[in-house]
Design goal:
78% helix; elongated; 10 helices
Length: 198
Amino acid sequence: MSTKAERTTAFITETVASVFIKHGYIGTSMSDLTEATGLTKGAIYGNFENKEALALSAYQYSSNLLLTKLDEVLSEENNALDKLFKLTDFYRNYDSFTLSMGGCPILNTGVDAQNNNRLLVAANKEVIKEVEGKIALVLENGVKRNELHLPVTPLQFAKQLFTMVQGAIAMATMTSDKKYLTNTIAYLEVLIKKELKK
């Protein structure tokens, strides 16, 4: 059973996570945090050392939601090719998944924190590596089981695939046009069938 302090800390983290993703580290004010939580500044900082510690905790919460969902998506199928199509299907509707989160934690935090919060930048890089690693593992296992043919190493293909997905998310976000995402996913599916299918 968690203590009252632990429950309060978890409540604050979960409540402000979408605020940080939506407004960014610099753009999030103390009044944004107190308004979202209904707590005083003293109550918030009684649980976190400073704004940076709170932002990091909030980012870890949001990115864990994404990583958990990716694990769920990639565990649904046995065949590597089917897993890849489940992944593209997830990203096709990624905006629905991230709506309650305030946007894409990787994109929004990565761009926002680049020049003002080295801890968030480092945490974001780790999450990117973890996502790429999950995709690479699917590819590697597919090659081992003779389900896929890869023209490059699994990690290289995973990085390219994820770069295209994140680029499409960025364009769809900046233009408010989901076609950037859906068209890129459709192209990726053709590429996967053409390049990887045995």
